[in-house]
Amino acid sequence: MVAPETLQDFPFFAGLSEIQLKSLSIIANEVSFQRGDFIFREDQPAHSMYLLLEGWVDIIINANAQGTRQELVTTRTPGDIFGWSAVVEPYVYTASAVCASPAKAVDFKGSDLLALFEMDARLCCLFTKRICQVVADRLQATRLQLVSLFLAH
Amino acid sequence: MVAPEVIENFPSFADFTESEVKAMATLAEERRYKASEYVFHEGDSADMLFLLLEGRVEMMMNTNAEGTERAVVMTAGPGEVLAWSALVEPYQLTASARCATPVRVVAMSGAGLRALAEVSCPLGFRLLQKVCQVSSSRLRAARVQLLSTVRPTAA
To answer: Which domain holds residue A36?
Structure first.
């Protein structure tokens, strides 16, 4: 478990009730990683969603079918949510996460989150809405990058 | 309103209950567009969610501030959901949709869907799950496209 205060200052958790923050903090665990550690790998079952507290995490995807060549697509910084595939069907990571520096994060087990959602329908909806926004923002950012390349050529 | 079967038979809406489908059908209407017509424009408020029944739609993004020039970022075909921004704050369209062929869609009121989701959390959850899935797979596709544009040999 982490202190509820750890979560409440991050925009992702804004607007949650005290009880909701508490229940999330009970299922959460703080985890530390070293530079070069893989937090999760693409195409593996998505066990956890993370809130990054300290450090940088590179999000990379396989650039060939064999998975022998990987490319950086974005870097996550403190306050960012990543590993959201843990709450989005079919619960499989769509990218790998590797630490670009020593990193500290809050780990939410997907199964614990889904169990919490079963008990609190409001939290379920609010949380899923926030996840939607995270994914939508990433998509928008990636497309803008793509469009800027079209312009450059 | 459309016949509930139209929604029921739409691939990603197969797991809604009969009453949910009925409720959504009352918020929906069928629309047709000609090739090269716009279904919606980037930056406009996202009032409708579209289920693409027939035809192909090019999703485009503005490449200048005036919005007079656009680049295609993906092409959508039958079975795809467009304008998911209608369910995600700030309910503003992040791309334009132009028909590459004649197109038939089901247009569903975004405000109506949001109200339904407020009333029924299970329905809201499933709708948002679909939005997440759609954007997640589009994100994956956009990243691959980005990589292959930056380093043509990588992909």
So the answer is: 30-144
